[in-house]
């Protein structure tokens, strides 16, 4: 193992003095549960990232997905079309609401739901489609919205990894009837833990607010059986500071990605579709034709010989996890699960790190060719 260099981490939350000061301010106020900071965070987030739509803050992205789909009416026996090439939360949230995730294949270039595959998966029990803007590349929302309209389905956007990404000039999370942004520490911005639900109508927003807080809008006037999925003012205070820094961080992610695009050799670099603004939550390359073992060996060489951290998102397609084990043929998903490898693209990497990452990948790719 090479110990000459320090390891470049695959992801790194950036928490500065401003975040600490904001938390201190909330702690000193003595009011730490959901309150004015959460409300301000919702207003600011709506303006910056949700095209002015009403957004509702919750305690995680997963909660946001769960409550958002319940608000759209998801119930027992309903089917929701989802990609399998995603984080398990996408399907978990359908399942815990009593629904059945129906897995379809993705586009091999953008890693997002393949609109051409959706029609064949629609049955009389289908109620919605949940595209994922994976790695920060927007899904083909114009085509997906048209298919949904044709079959009278709702669309819930999983924008967990795509804060600020746009498709044909509009921000992700503003196309579907609802959408979710995650604020987990490794995402493009964080509140510690947290999520935001973007809502297409005032009624959807009201339902999410009710479900977030025991079914109450007015205290002790419980209208529905709800949860406690509230965000605290401590988390909102962190999120507000991070929101102010997001645009600069995204710019740095995009510059890092452009550098990799220009200099990597022997691997397949990410495709950006016309009309898409990619925010590079991950910079994901493909080791074309690799088996999972060969890709894993590539990753091990990067880490151990070159001290370049990297990650595989996700090694097991969701339809093959023990929880969902489904007999369905998803050849593109299977191929991507064998070939993908994500490199550090986060705003903390230095110019020197970028050079090291490029040299490392090109060396390992050449040795394997
Ligand atoms: C992170 C993530 C989630 C869940 O968000 P949490 O805030 O961790 O609950 C859902 N979907 C995708 C694609 C994610 O990356």
From TrEMBL:
Cofactor(s) annotated in UniProt: pyridoxal 5'-phosphate
Positions carrying N6-(pyridoxal phosphate)lysine: 187
Matches recorded under InterPro entries: DegT/StrS_aminotransferase (IPR000653), PyrdxlP-dep_Trfase (IPR015424), PyrdxlP-dep_Trfase_major (IPR015421), PyrdxlP-dep_Trfase_small (IPR015422)
Gene3D superfamilies with a match to the protein in the record: Aspartate Aminotransferase, domain 1, Type I PLP-dependent aspartate aminotransferase-like (Major domain)
Active site: 187 (proton acceptor)
Keywords: Aminotransferase, Pyridoxal phosphate, Transferase
Xref: Pfam families: DegT_DnrJ_EryC1 (PF01041)
Classification via SUPFAM superfamilies: PLP-dependent transferases
Keyword Transferase annotated: yes
One example of a Gene Ontology biological process annotation: polysaccharide biosynthetic process
Listed GO MF terms: pyridoxal phosphate binding; transaminase activity
Record family assignment: Belongs to the DegT/DnrJ/EryC1 family.
Full protein name: Aminotransferase DegT
Upper lineage: Bacteria, Bacillati, Actinomycetota, Actinomycetes, Micrococcales
